[in-house]
Amino acid sequence: MMIPTATYRIQFRNGMTFDRASSLVPYLKRLGISHLYASPIFTATTGSTHGYDVTDANEIDPAIGGRDGFEHMVKALKAEGLGLLLDIVPNHMAASLENPWWRDVVENGEKSRYARHFDIDWTRRLTMPFLGDTFDKALAAGELAVKADPKTGKPALAYYDTLYPLAPASYAGRQEEMLKFADRAAIAKLHDQQPYRLISWRDAPRELSYRRFFEITGLAGMRVEDGTVFDDTHRLILELVHSGKVDGLRVDHVDGLADPKAYLERLRHEAGPDCYITVEKILGEGEQVPTDWPISGTTGYEFIAAVSDALVDGPKLDELRSAYEKATGQPVDMAAELRAAKLLMADNNFAGEVSTLLNIAMQIQPTEDRESALSEAAVKSALRELLVAFPVYRTYGTRQGIPPEGREMLAKVLDNVRNGPNPPEDAALAFLERIMVGDVEQAAAGSASIFRTRFQQLTGPLMAKSVEDTLFFRQHMALALNEVGAEPLPRSFSLDRFHAEMQTRLERQPDALSGTSTHDTKRGEDARARLYAITEAPELWADGVDRWRRINSHAVRTLDDGPAPEPAVEWMLYQALAGAWPNDLHAEDAAGLKALETRFLGYVEKALREAKLRTNWGDPNETYEKAVLEYARTLLSPSNQAFLTDFADTLRPFIRAGLVNGITQTIIKLMAPGVPDIYQGSEGLDLSLVDPDNRREPDFDTLQQRLTEREKLASTDEEEWQSGRLKQHVIATLLRVRQEAPTLFRRGEYLPLGASGKRADNVIAFARADMDDAFIVIAPRLVFSALHASLAPSRSERWAETEIILPERLGHRRYRDVCTGKLVDPKDRIAVNWAFGDHPFVLLLAE
Q: The Glycosyl hydrolase family 13 catalytic domain covers which part of the protein (predicted)?
């Protein structure tokens, strides 16, 4: 199997086509990329901005160039010696009439060939949750009619511009007559004869009859555990792999599948041993990818969390927390907030899925004679607590039960529930435990298997929506820590933890992707790197927030349910703005402020609605939202110079420290275990906000111009840092090193290096070593005080009396500085003050 040395993620659509990607191939080659990593390329709904809403899994989307464009891109890649990875979506397809399979199911119900391709509960009519109100109200309002579908000529049930096909039996021999329907009672009767039932989108959480992707009713779950469904959905994917056009696959949301292990085994068997396969999976604290999955690892969210250990000033987090609590007037209780978010999801957003589980459990109970009858209320209470207590995305039970590691996890969760502050009835919890592990009567084994699968398919979405898309938009103390893959509960941060995590990574998944920005991260990697610096100067940050709140107090509106924005949201706004503020933006730059405002307002609206406190997506509080958005506009108004000047001045040392963090973060990603993944444009500065902001097309023209052909690294003048050019050249330099010594960085040991002296806590040092090959990394960390004008030591004192001790196997050797080409012989230690003479990091390759 060929393992990539580095990947480059391209987001197709929104202007990015195969032809445009083809034109970037020479640039990617010069940057040092081995594989282009493509977002989904199969035909998706009209106007799709991401491609995960697939309508035809066996057609390459004409909207981005179709098969011809794809073949042209593959030819361009091969001409430069580059490979291709594809993002595939086995978990779901678009629940859209543009999807011929879904349309056939809507028209023919259970008689459709595709009726069981989708994960549909056929004990009832297929629910179609796309009405603005109930069917009866829509009908009464005259919003429903019978019209001829212009594409087929057949009668259809029309709701505005959407034409739902009718079951052939419901109009057989009456086609002309039906097209004259105007009687509402007749339309209602006709609707009752369909295999589907039109309902309000608001009723989807409780009444949906098909499994969806998270809360998105427009994405219907697929049953790829069925061999026929696997074959039908993977025909083109496998053709592209077998033909050599595609070298690897990234499996989207693998935890959504009924049996991830079985799916991956089938995929590996069909794709062959040489196909590089990774999976999108969130790993919890201490969790590892199952060792029996035939994959190279994950897409790397856990790597982002690991890097934070190297760049967050852990001991000062308590000070930042105190400042946040003082500003908001409320204590930070993440455990309580996490529980509240999970209960909200279980009781509302996923109420239908919970109800399905409860119904299955209650159907199983009569077959069990080991306890007295349990009330539905008791079982529901136990089920809720079990779901809420789950600390990871899921276990991996099958029809046969749960494997040992899953049982161990389940036992811990059950113990926590029993001994927690909200214990349910023990008999009910024990009953659910038996269902989960398969300890039930033979007559109930099938139902228990279905319960187990449904439970495991629910815990992931419930966790994701509770943490990533609720809690992380409610708790704003340190936004840099609110990232995909991060732990929702407080933890310690230390360099020792980082080193330990990298050694584990080398052992468990050395060929996994290592990302720092993706299309799903909450903010760009350089925005996050900048915000890490707030943990180094909590008092300075808090003082700034106090001043800014006073300056802008006139823009706070008093509403019936409280101030808008409330103090916690004010804190969030200033921190989010600090992360996204362009390095070169001046307080007087009206055009620049306007451009930032456009992006910022979109983020603010999303942040407010995802928090689900005073507004949400389903029921927006327009008065509240308008007040907060107006406050955000005030912050960026050119007339608000008192604030803008203060904000920009206060931000300056955070920007500088963030640039250092960004370079260190990049060096770590490129040299630590794993395959570095560069998200489009993040080889320059990535100060993006949450999607859709992070899915904007980068300025590729500028990026290509900046990457010159010269061998030496760009200078380390401040302008080179500020523009992102230094970061780009660090990437190009180190990716070339990786290509020259692939075994060293794939299998070489990870050796933490100790520092001593005055600034020992301000450097991170490690080495990669394999046989005679070795590479030494020394990079700065926690440098805010060194870069703040009133706190900084002189340049000569900055790294004085600080040394890196080299173990015997690394010392007394000659090394080449890959940035300058200089040869050095450090003996048994490296003086940091000397080493940082040319540039503030050390990258040494053994000669």
A: 12-738
CA 615 vs CA 483, 604, 625: distances in Å: 22, 12, 7
Which stretches does DSSP call E strand in 132-251? Answer: 144-148, 155-159, 162-165, 196-200, 212-213, 216-221, 248-251
Q: Are 681 and 703 in contact (CB under 8 A)?
A: yes
Show the tokens assigned to 11: 């987001």
Q: Which of 628, 635, 549, 540 has its CA nearest to residue 587?
A: 635
Give the pTM.
Answer: 0.96
Q: What are 312-371's pLDDT values in tens digits?
A: 999 999 999 999 999 999 999 999 999 999 999 999 999 999 999 999 999 998 876 565
Q: Please tell me what DSSP assigns to residue 788.
A: S
To the nearest whole number, what is the mean pLDDT of the chain?
95
- Over the stretch 175-191, which tens digit does the pLDDT of each residue have? 777 777 788 999 999 99
Task: Give the whole-angstrom CA distance, residue 704 versus residue 2.
Answer: 27
Nearest residue to 519 (alpha-carbon basis) of 73, 85, 52: 52
- Which of these, 500, 538, 363, lies nearest to 440 by C-alpha position? 363
Residues 589-647 have pLDDT tens digits of 999 999 999 999 999 999 999 999 999 999 999 999 999 999 999 999 999 999 999 99
Q: Are 165 and 106 in contact (CB under 8 A)?
A: yes
Cα 554 from Cα 551, distance rounded (Å): 8
φ and ψ at residue 48, rounded to 5 degrees: -55, 135
DSSP 449: H
Does residue 565 have a cis peptide bond before it, meaning omega lies within 30 degrees of 0? yes
Distances (CA, A) of 634 to 338, 555, 567, 601, 655: 32, 7, 16, 11, 22
604: which 2 tokens? 């603010």
Residues linked to residue 148 through DSSP beta bridges, in sequence order: 155
438 closest CA partner among 405, 398, 411, 404: 398
- For residue 691, give the 3-state DSSP assignment: coil
| Residue 713 pLDDT level (bands cut at 50, 70, 90) | low
**Token match 């087929």: residue?**
152
